[in-house]
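ok trying this again, last paste got cut off
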Amino acid sequence: MNIRTMTWDDVEQVAAIEAACFGEYWSASLLEEGLARDWNLFLVTEENGCLTGYGAACVIAGEGEIQRIAVLKEFRRMGTGRKLLDALINASRERGAGAMTLEVRESNEAARNLYLSAGFQEEARRKDYYRNPTEAAVIMWNRKI
């Protein structure tokens, strides 16, 4: 598996990963808008020329936010999500982030455990934050990346 910076040529494949992984997914045009902004970072995982997952983060004023980590179902439980998370944290640190935050569906135990294992701590909840289905978001922070 290879991790690299997302390119404009990857947008359609990443949009397909979004649609496969999330009930409320980012469109190709939204991904293009994000890719055009300097404070955003998009990474993709690639296996035999096909994208298997991607991650998005942003760094503003010394703080990073993990915005997305998505891995196609057939490539889960192989360490891809962890490698993406570590790469996003390292790249955010290089861009000046000293702390990072994220939000995750309350029911997404696998993701919450991944984030906990990377030093994130649960600090708050946002009731009814997610739609399709409606669910609370767990706000997590790693204040020492």
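PB: full thing came through this time. The CA atoms of residues 115 and 121 lie 8 Å apart.
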